[in-house]
Structures are given as structure tokens and as C-alpha cells.
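User: Before I run my own analysis I want an independent prediction to cross-check against. Here's the chain; please return only the C-alpha cells and, at the end, one sentence I can use as a sanity check.
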Amino acid sequence: MPKRYLNVEYNTISTEIDVTDFEDPSDVQDAIKAEYGPAMADIDAPQLQLYTNSNKNQLINTWALLDSLPQEYFTQDGSCVVIGVSPPPSRQPTQTDLGPTSAAASSALLDFWTAFTNYPNPLEGNTVVQLPTDVFILGNHSIGSSIFIRPCYPKLLEKSQSIVQS
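Assistant: C-alpha cells:
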């Protein structure tokens, strides 16, 4: 089988990647990461996105799409598949990141769980749990302060009972 190279471009740097034995786009991503080395030191291979200059809205994210590219993408000095980088996964906010609105919501949610877990009566099906004044379900005033315990969801009833009893 003859060697097959894919022309790729990242920023202003173009190179050829040997894709002869590849069967999956992740193989291409790994090879690109290895080829560009230090230029992509802080980028993980799965973050690499491939597309053509003519259609930047169409990600090349399956082997069928990659394999169906015109021959010019696989010939020396031909057109290049452009490499984009997806943003890294966002981190979860810490308490110091939370603004006043989020802090208030956290407090309201804590009030709900405190009231729910300290409910004085045993939970039974077909009953209504009435939370204290100014305490709302999941901290959301638009949901209200009353929880109807339905017996038709036994697992949910058991879980609610275990929360209140613990």
C-alpha cells in the first residue's frame, strides 16, 4: 500500500501527516499533536478540530469525512486541512468565584436541604411536606414551599426517607 499523507495547517505552519495506517480521527489528532510538538504543548489531542478552509462550519470528526476529502488534501503541496482548537473544559466555580446572586442561591439551597433533612414527621406517601416560611424547594421561590410525596415512586420515597432520617 502506498503511503498517504494529509496536509495540515496550524496557525501559519503547514506540514504533512502520514495517515497511511490510520482508521480513526483520533489517530490523526495524536499524530498532529506529535508532529507539532512544542507548538501544541498545552493542547490535548482530543481538543484538535479539523476542517477545511472552504467549509469551516463542517468539522471533520469521522473517518468517513476525512477519507472523503478531495485528493488535493493528500498530495504534496496540496490544500491543507485547518487545525482549530476547541476550548478546554471549563472548571467548576469555587466559592470565591461565586457572585452575590450565586452566593444567595447557595444559601437558599442550603436552607432547603437543612429544612428538608430536619423535617420532624415521618415521610409517607400521599402527604404534603410543608417547609418553613421563606424556605423554598431547591432554594427556588418559584417552585414553592410544599412537597407532595407520591407513593407511586417508591425509590424516590425511600431516598427521601433516608435523607430525612439520616
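Sanity check: The beta strands are 5-10, 13-18, 48-52, 81-85, 127-130, 146-149.
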